[in-house]
Amino acid sequence: MSGPIRALHVDDDPDSTDLTATFLERENERLDVVSETSAEDGLRRLAETDIDCVVSDYDMPGRTGIDFLNAVREEYPDLPFILFTGKGSEEVAADAISAGATDYIQKETSTSQFTVLANRITNTVEQYRARRQSERANRRRRQTLTRITDGFVEMNAEFTVTDVNEQTVALTGLAREELIGKNYRDDIVAGQPNTAFAEYKRVLETGEMRTIEARSDINPNRWVEERIFPTEDGDGLYIYFQDITERKRRERELEAQTRRLQGVLDSVQAALWMRDTDSNLVLLNQNFRELFGIENERDAIGKRVDEVFDEARAAQFRAIDERVLSTGEPLEREDEVETTRGTRVHLVRVTPIFDDDGAVFATVGAAVDITARKERERTLTALHEAAQKIEQSSDEGMVYETLVETAENVLNFDLVAVDVRRGEYLIQEAWKLNSRDAEFFERTSLEANETFAARAYNRQETIVIDDLRATEVTPAVPDYRSVMTVPIGTFGTFQAVFSEVGAFDDSDQEFAELLVDHARVKLAQLDSAADADREQ
């Protein structure tokens, strides 16, 4: 599995494909990189050429990297596919994992990214080849097992072997004369750990069938699964066994792969999980645990959702799984989750996972926090309604009142005021103060330029101050710490104040300027109408 590796790189930027091919082949002489500049050409190349791994950009015309991945998965469900993109986001990462991407790497400016990419390609292809070789070996083994029966041993109540079949001879490596007539504990496994012997005694005492997995007492380097039955008269045992050493080895490999996969899952910002057809949790990442307050994955892995979550949440999860399992189609929805940070809105996508026979055996989910986006949408909707109200205002006073009320109720600004220019002064026209002790300067000199309101007006630009105590300006109330002042054109200023440091972020400024701009336009219209009336 250390032979050459042919990778297909798809990126609509020819310079990027040339640069990537050069650096990858320089990083590892095993790599042979072929390039295409569109998803369609990439699919054509896959059909014509033996490819070991696909590396694709995300943002491409016609088809995105996820669309390309979906098309590849239709024809090559297991082919390694790495999304190598400069467009990094939780949504893209979550979609890539859900769609079956083998890995996700965000482009960087340094050439070290090609070292990382070369290593990921090499490791991914080696794992893919090893898995295919293992699967071929397993298929051959299963075909062989279908033509033979399990090993069979009969013992009496004293644990003396009374009968065996030929498969037992083959599986144990002991001849029939070394088994029949011999006492299992004293003769056959004398000096060995006797792992199964306690279970034999238990079946004789209780008359109940038992199934165990343990290291073989006869060949300690091998694992066996034993099904132990009492004989019809209860005076002996029937034991059917099979060698499960290979299965145990695969389980250990799967555990190791799961640990590696867990590392990848934990590095993704979205909450990720996998549940089987009975809604048992199979996999989950750190973000999922943090989202639902699960301290340790052992508290959830292998358990039904009913055992982990409250009744309402468990019912919701079961309903989602049942729909995805029954339709075989992905499900996408928005979901509100109560977290330690309050109610958060997540975009949830649950995708069915199919086995080789086309049957759904699990669901994979990804949840991306879109709370900020939803809040922004709600704010923009409310601002649009406020803009309509401003547009319908019949005088300046209504414009100013709407401006102040919207700042308080929609933008949640605690202290807001509008100062209107009268001569060489800004005069307080409208305000909303949520504290009895709150105050604003009733009149501010534009010539003195001593306040932020005057400065913002004179400069005709927004001023945001995170901490007034770090400036030379004396506020109207000493407890004021943050201030944002937006000029309303030549009409005056809009100002918001908080008693907390750094209260205003970029979104606050954006929304305030948007609201004030609507007011400025309406005031200009009213002013023009008044001038026209005076001329008449």
Automatic annotation (TrEMBL):
<dbReference type="InterPro" id="IPR035965">
    <property type="entry name" value="PAS-like_dom_sf"/>
</dbReference>
<dbReference type="InterPro" id="IPR000014">
    <property type="entry name" value="PAS"/>
</dbReference>
<dbReference type="InterPro" id="IPR013656">
    <property type="entry name" value="PAS_4"/>
</dbReference>
<keyword id="KW-0808">Transferase</keyword>
<keyword id="KW-0597">Phosphoprotein</keyword>
<feature type="domain" description="Response regulatory">
    <location>
        <begin position="6"/>
        <end position="122"/>
    </location>
</feature>
<feature type="domain" description="PAS">
    <location>
        <begin position="137"/>
        <end position="183"/>
    </location>
</feature>
<keyword id="KW-0418">Kinase</keyword>
<feature type="domain" description="PAC">
    <location>
        <begin position="331"/>
        <end position="382"/>
    </location>
</feature>
<dbReference type="InterPro" id="IPR052155">
    <property type="entry name" value="Biofilm_reg_signaling"/>
</dbReference>
<dbReference type="GO" id="GO:0000160">
    <property type="term" value="P:phosphorelay signal transduction system"/>
</dbReference>
<dbReference type="Pfam" id="PF00072">
    <property type="entry name" value="Response_reg"/>
</dbReference>
<dbReference type="InterPro" id="IPR029016">
    <property type="entry name" value="GAF-like_dom_sf"/>
</dbReference>
<dbReference type="InterPro" id="IPR001789">
    <property type="entry name" value="Sig_transdc_resp-reg_receiver"/>
</dbReference>
<feature type="domain" description="PAS">
    <location>
        <begin position="257"/>
        <end position="328"/>
    </location>
</feature>
<protein>
    <submittedName>
        <fullName>HTR-like protein</fullName>
    </submittedName>
</protein>
<dbReference type="InterPro" id="IPR011006">
    <property type="entry name" value="CheY-like_superfamily"/>
</dbReference>
<feature type="modified residue" description="4-aspartylphosphate">
    <location>
        <position position="57"/>
    </location>
</feature>
<dbReference type="Pfam" id="PF13185">
    <property type="entry name" value="GAF_2"/>
</dbReference>
<dbReference type="InterPro" id="IPR003018">
    <property type="entry name" value="GAF"/>
</dbReference>
<dbReference type="Pfam" id="PF08448">
    <property type="entry name" value="PAS_4"/>
</dbReference>
<dbReference type="GO" id="GO:0016301">
    <property type="term" value="F:kinase activity"/>
</dbReference>
<dbReference type="InterPro" id="IPR000700">
    <property type="entry name" value="PAS-assoc_C"/>
</dbReference>
